[in-house]
Amino acid sequence: MLRLNQMKVHTKYIAGLIVVIFFVLCPLFLNSERSYFIYFLYTTFIYITIAQGWNLIAGYTGQVSLGQHAFFGLGAYITAITWRAGLTGYFDPLAFLLSGTGALLLAAIVGVVLLSKLRDDYFSLGTLGIGEILRVAALNGGSFTEGAAGISLNSTAYKSMNHYYYTALFIMLFTLVVIVLLIRSRVGLALIAIREDETAASANGIPVLRYKILAFSIGAFVTGLCGSLNAYYIFHVHPPGVLSLNWVVIPVLMCILGGAGTFMGPILGAFVLSIAFELTSIWMPEIHPIFSGAFIVLVTLFMPSGIMYYITNHKSMIMRRLRLTVFKWMNQKA
Amino acid sequence: MNKNESQYSKKNNSKKDVTGDDIFQMKSITKRFGGLKALNDISFNLKKNEITGLIGPNGAGKSTLFNVATSIYKPDSGKIFLMGENITGKRPHQICWMGISRTFQLAKTFLSMTALENVLVGAIYGHKPRARNVRQHAMEVLELVGLETKSDIITSQMTLSDRRLLEVARALVSQPFIMLLDEPMAGLNPSEIKKMLHVIEKAHKERNVSILWVEHKVEAIFSLCNRIIVLEYGQKIAEGKPEEIAQNNNVIEAYLGKPSS
Ligand SMILES: Nc1ncnc2c1ncn2[C@@H]1O[C@H](COP(=O)(O)OP(=O)(O)OP(=O)(O)O)[C@@H](O)[C@H]1O
Ligand SMILES: [Mg+2]
Fold it and tell me: Where are the domains of chain A?
């Protein structure tokens, strides 16, 4: 938001830049093909991107989409189908573009239908339905989608994990830059206004539907890019994989955990949840789902608005105590 | 309350009879909610630079009239004109772009934003969006309503009075032809009411805006308005100068006769 850019912006940028440089350098010091850390970062980058896309429509604009897995899956299928047909190649920028754009168009069409008339909760249910519709379409797509078995891709094309790592990093950075620019701009002001009060937003001249569709579509675009990358990564695109509800549930949890409607929220949430998931799956693989579930419950109990809000509140509380102490101390002296 | 009301009455004398062109017209507007006719064949005009009061008992249809005028509800029949142009059925944001701004009976500010950001929304997206100097323009309007020192305060931390003033600022900043105020004084204490009255008067004078103003604080509305329209059960039962309205038997029976709220 606008007031963010008044203070400490430079420290934030510098800190961000250092982290980015660290990510860029990681593969130079680790063996990407074997490094668990590289794989961990790769998946986290993807989750951050999807979570940030959801954040734009749900966190900032207040429209809770449950259809991100549909955009992810569509992106994966577009990449797989165009590659198999020889229209695109391995790691083809055109495939990424087509996948992102396909997801964007789907979101725009669905958005016009679901966002123009229906109430908010129907939007959630409706978007949840897109994934189901795509699943049915994929299962019944005949030789086009190869049904339940899915499309197997030419895995001999695989070159190096670094391709995946840097592409995921690039997609994430691209997403973060787009989100920052949007949120700091007049568009961000409109999105937040819509979240805060739709009636007041439209009465003050904001074309509400247009901005909702914009936020929804941009989120879908970056999610489609992730789906595309995922198709290249697993070389096998089938409904249970790329249309799994995990592709919406996990990023949404990350975003809520970190703080929806904040820029750092999805980033923090993705790292915290990924680490929690990974640790439990390493140390106690049998109870991983239970622990992860318990972790999520605990966090929502104690930090219902997410880590970012907790930090912000905590900071001001600490500052207040500090000021009070100083004040008392000065009073005693006087 | 009564001791304050005498302060408004003094202003009765300073009020001028501005008559200009009709800039806004409602023609035979009817709005039903199921079996209820919330607005029944309502017609009236607003003139340039006039402050028009809209009064009536609870449930008379005043807010519904605002909601129809700003396209939040579609009328079942009838037409609405702004500067001679038919605006019936336009989208709410288009109505704003064409020059009608409003406030809400239950103050609707953007709670997570600062006061300045709230006004910026109106300045950027409203009737006359300005490419440059939106910030300066927004600050000027905040100053007009007396909130310039609170520009960086998050709206959720502001008092109801300040939020109502902020809503007026947000409506005003888009430089509308007409501003619709839905009970801007509801829930305010006497000194806040005085402040609001002052702000409305100042906004009207300095910004050349016509105002349609719904209010239960009858003394306040009689002190500022050039003309008053009275609604009861969705029907217009009277229209005229304040002094005429005060003597109208229908009105006295329907509204003024009751103990004031
Ligand atoms: N959305 C709605 N659905 C159904 N009935 C409604 C709706 N909005 C208003 N009404 C009804 O229409 C009538 C007029 O309501 P309205 O809010 O316009 O009154 P009002 O004059 O603004 O009253 P008040 O002074 O209490 O604000 C009331 O009987 C109300 O119950
Ligand atoms: Mg009302």
Answer: 35-302, 308-334
User: What are the structure tokens assigned to A297, written together?
Assistant: 């419950």
Domain total in chain B: 1
List, for residues A260-315, the tens digit of each pLDDT value: 999 999 999 999 989 988 887 777 666 666 766 677 677 667 766 777 777 777 76
Closest C-alpha to B165, from B232, B115, B236, B97: B115
Q: Which of residues 82-101 of B touch A (CB under 8 A)?
A: 91-93, 95-97, 101
C-beta atoms surrounding B232 within 10 Å: 19
Residue B108 Ramachandran class (φ > 0 left, ψ -120 to 50 alpha, else beta): beta
- Within a domain: B102: yes
Tell me whether A207 touches chain B (CB under 8 Å): yes
pTM for the model stands at 0.88
| Tokens, residue B133 | 């100097």
User: Does residue B124 lie in a domain region?
Assistant: yes
Query: What is the pLDDT averaged over residues B246-255?
Result: 79
How far is A2 from chain B, CA to nearest CA, in Å? 8
Q: Which of A204, A262, A312 to mutate to test the interface with B (most CBs of B within 10 A)?
A: A204
- Residue B172 lies in domain: 21-256
Bridge partners of B211? B51, B179
* Window 247-286 of A, Cβ < 8 Å to B: 261
Q: Is the CB of B58 under 6 A from ligand 1?
A: yes
Q: What are the tens digits of pLDDT across the range A200-242?
A: 999 999 999 999 999 999 999 999 999 999 999 999 999 999 9
Nearest neighbour of B72 by CB, restricted to A1, A190, A199:
A199
